Amino acid sequence: MTGQVRERIGIYPGTFDPITLGHADIIRRGAKLVDRLIIGVTTNPSKNPMFTPDERMAMVVREVSDMGLGNVEVVGFNALLMKFARKQGASVIVRGLRAVADFEYEYQMAGMNQQIDAEIETVFLMADVSLQPIASKLVKEIALFGGDIAAFVSKNVRADVAGRVKQHGQLGDY
Predict the structure, then answer these.
(1) Backbone angles phi, psi at 40, to 5 degrees
(2) CA distances from 36 to 11, 72, 136 (A)
(3) So what's the pLDDT on residue 42?
(4) Which of 28, 105, 124, 157 is most buried by a 10 A CB count?
């Protein structure tokens, strides 16, 4: 039998606003499942971002670089996920799950994506049990009210978030 083995490319999409320790866990584990993992940093009009797309890209690039994973790259995109995945030559979409609420949303999304392109599979990774409560939205909320986010993000991301909160002002007095 002759022929070339096709490189298995995965996409881990998200807004990463900001990138959390939960995201980092999925990146590390997802990178083991494919030959090349592309972290797709995207926009989501329904979310209220703390950071611009360029700032989020730079943050994710820095965090991925710190992980030392040779098969992971970061690419920004603002398109339909399945079109982006096709353009990248991906055969797998990697998604992290924290709770039942995530599953319901992700299950629906996977079904829609399968209708768009049945050749691209969605793979769900359960978040590490110690990281399951972490959500970017909650990290931002805690930071905006003056709480400590050290258990949820890296030291560098904590500094990024603190800088942004300082720039825009903290919420609440107590």
Answers:
(1) -95, 105
(2) 9, 6, 25
(3) 95
(4) 157
Upper half-sphere CA count for residue 5 (Cβ side, 13 Å): 4
Give the CA distances from residue 15 to residues 51, 70, 115, in Å, rounded to whole numbers and listed in that order: 10, 22, 23
pLDDT tens figures, 92-128:
999 999 877 788 889 999 999 999 999 999 999 998 8
Q: Which CATH number fits domain 9-168: 3.40.50.300, 3.40.190.100, 3.40.630.10, 3.40.50.620?
A: 3.40.50.620
Please tell me the distance from the alpha carbon of residue 92 to that of residue 124, in angstroms, as a whole number.
10
Q: In the Cβ-directed half-sphere of 115, how many Cα atoms lie within 13 Å?
A: 5
Q: Are 137 and 109 in contact (CB under 8 A)?
A: no
pLDDT of residue 174: 40
Give the pLDDT band of residue 40 (cuts 50, 70, 90): very high
Partnered with residue 162 across adjacent β-strands are: none
Active site positions, annotated: 23, 47, 98, 136
What per-residue confidence (pLDDT) applies to 98? 86
